[in-house]
């Protein structure tokens, strides 16, 4: 039975903690729900709608069938086999000897790795430079620790931008954002949503500023294996004097097309990781054992096949390269201007040349791209994501004529999207 006086007492005071203020709205919930409500073809949310490769699925089945210990707790900061395989693999990639027990932390997806980084390293009043467009949880996670976000946008160098490569940071503008309060900078390469893959010179420019101002670099590299047209992913941690100050974040979900497993990791110097471990052990404490075992096995296989045509890190980008081209030509044929991504899951397209009468009062106060995405989902049955959500309020208006499409989808899904776009362009 409800105790009414007690309920009244509870309700008469502020229930929520202040850190929940201003971060309650989540655009992913809103746009994912909209896609579901209208049963739209979904090029919105970034996940593969195809299965992971057989060896990955088998690794998971083998783990589940691997005996009692696979169903019990494992080492708190990462299953021994996984931290070992991550250390071995990434020592080879970075050329730095990574200690599996000191320099690696396994988390519940890259998302939790980011959360642990901000919680462990940012204090109230610290400034965090965020490069735009950015995966939007960086903003809310900085807010939750009382940090101050400082934004700097990538901008297209030329007006007619056809590739993410022409979107660059102004070195002067970036340098002007560093102050004595700057604690960290967050970068994301390959970038979500733009698909930019930073070149070594660009990373060196960022690294020089980090070193000059004694600032940490949080480098979100969840799409590291997905680069196209000969572009190469470079780890900022591998540049001189950057290992000691870089927090590199990865995702088993993105690496092996199994986003639902939610296995992520952080690789960094032990003197940084130890603080993230403190947050981790006082919150989640432990990630599911079987999923960690499966990611470990998949990495061991990739280690053996590294650089060969059988490697999934070769096969997945090769497959997606084709789908990316298919989506780009479809967008072009209906008058949208795609910006060819150098890497990642997504392609953004300029929608400014298409004229749409939204005729929807419920969205009249929203930005142009949000109205467009809602209209396309509701009226045409195609779900996408507005790009302005990846910008700060101060820069949003400058970038509200782009929409993000995810091409990590079955051919059939891309065909269905193409049909919708063609019909629309023919006025049907
Ligand atoms: N960073 C970026 C740039 C992302 O796009 C995502 C979404 N997958 C994440 C982090 C979170 O990754 P995970 O699914 O491993 O938590
Ligand atoms: N990274 C994915 C995207 O950008 C998933 C987002 C999420 O899960 N919040 O679509």
UniProtKB/TrEMBL annotation:
<keyword id="KW-0663">Pyridoxal phosphate</keyword>
<dbReference type="GO" id="GO:0047804">
    <property type="term" value="F:cysteine-S-conjugate beta-lyase activity"/>
</dbReference>
<dbReference type="Pfam" id="PF00155">
    <property type="entry name" value="Aminotran_1_2"/>
</dbReference>
<protein>
    <recommendedName>
        <fullName>Aminotransferase class I/classII large domain-containing protein</fullName>
    </recommendedName>
</protein>
<comment type="similarity">
    <text>Belongs to the class-I pyridoxal-phosphate-dependent aminotransferase family.</text>
</comment>
<dbReference type="InterPro" id="IPR004839">
    <property type="entry name" value="Aminotransferase_I/II_large"/>
</dbReference>
<dbReference type="GO" id="GO:0016212">
    <property type="term" value="F:kynurenine-oxoglutarate transaminase activity"/>
</dbReference>
<comment type="pathway">
    <text>Amino-acid degradation; L-kynurenine degradation; kynurenate from L-kynurenine: step 1/2.</text>
</comment>
<dbReference type="GO" id="GO:0005739">
    <property type="term" value="C:mitochondrion"/>
</dbReference>
<keyword id="KW-0808">Transferase</keyword>
<keyword id="KW-0032">Aminotransferase</keyword>
<dbReference type="InterPro" id="IPR015422">
    <property type="entry name" value="PyrdxlP-dep_Trfase_small"/>
</dbReference>
<dbReference type="InterPro" id="IPR015424">
    <property type="entry name" value="PyrdxlP-dep_Trfase"/>
</dbReference>
<dbReference type="InterPro" id="IPR051326">
    <property type="entry name" value="Kynurenine-oxoglutarate_AT"/>
</dbReference>
<feature type="domain" description="Aminotransferase class I/classII large">
    <location>
        <begin position="40"/>
        <end position="417"/>
    </location>
</feature>
<dbReference type="GO" id="GO:0030170">
    <property type="term" value="F:pyridoxal phosphate binding"/>
</dbReference>
<dbReference type="InterPro" id="IPR015421">
    <property type="entry name" value="PyrdxlP-dep_Trfase_major"/>
</dbReference>
């Amino acid at each position: 039975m409800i105790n009414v006086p007690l309920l009244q007492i509870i309700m008469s005071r502020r229930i929520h903690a202040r850190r929940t203020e201003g971060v309650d709205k989540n655009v992913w919930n809103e746009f994912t729900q909209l896609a579901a409500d209208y049963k739209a073809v979904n090029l919105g949310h970034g996940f593969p709608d195809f299965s992971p490769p057989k060896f990955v699925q088998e690794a998971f089945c083998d783990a589940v069938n691997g005996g009692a210990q696979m169903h019990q707790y494992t080492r708190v900061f990462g299953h021994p086999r996984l931290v070992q395989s991550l250390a071995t693999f990434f020592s080879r990639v970075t050329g730095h000897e990574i200690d599996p027990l000191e320099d690696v932390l396994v988390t519940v997806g890259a998302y939790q790795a980011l959360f642990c980084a901000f919680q462990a390293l940012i204090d109230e009043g610290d400034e965090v430079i965020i490069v735009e467009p950015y995966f939007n949880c960086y903003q809310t996670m900085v807010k939750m620790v009382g940090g101050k976000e400082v934004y700097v946008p990538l901008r297209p160098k030329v007006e007619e931008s056809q590739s993410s490569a022409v979107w660059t940071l102004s070195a002067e503008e970036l340098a002007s954002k560093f102050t004595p309060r700057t604690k960290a900078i967050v970068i994301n390469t390959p970038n979500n949503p733009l698909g930019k893959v930073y070149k070594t010179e660009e990373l060196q420019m960022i690294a020089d500023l980090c070193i000059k101002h004694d600032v940490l670099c949080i480098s979100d590299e969840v799409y590291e294996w997905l680069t196209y047209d000969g572009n190469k992913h470079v780890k900022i941690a591998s540049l001189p004097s950057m290992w000691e100050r870089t927090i590199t974040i990865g995702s088993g979900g993105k690496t092996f097309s199994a986003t639902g497993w939610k296995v992520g990791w952080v690789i960094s110097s032990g003197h940084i990781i130890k603080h993230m471990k403190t947050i981790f052990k006082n919150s989640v404490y432990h990630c599911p054992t079987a999923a960690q075992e499966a990611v470990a096995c998949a990495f061991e296989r990739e280690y053996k096949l590294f650089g060969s045509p059988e490697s999934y890190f070769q096969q997945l980008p090769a497959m997606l390269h084709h789908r990316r081209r298919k989506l780009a030509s479809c967008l072009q044929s209906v008058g949208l201007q795609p910006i060819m991504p150098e890497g990642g899951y997504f392609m953004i397209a300029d929608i400014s040349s298409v004229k749409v009468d939204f005729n929807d009062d419920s969205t009249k106060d929203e930005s142009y791209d949000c109205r467009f995405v809602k209209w396309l989902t509701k009226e045409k049955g195609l779900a996408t994501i507005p790009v302005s959500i990846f910008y700060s309020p101060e820069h949003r208006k400058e970038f509200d004529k782009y929409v993000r499409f995810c091409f990590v989808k079955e051919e059939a899904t891309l065909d269905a999207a193409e049909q919708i776009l063609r019909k629309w362009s023919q006025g049907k």
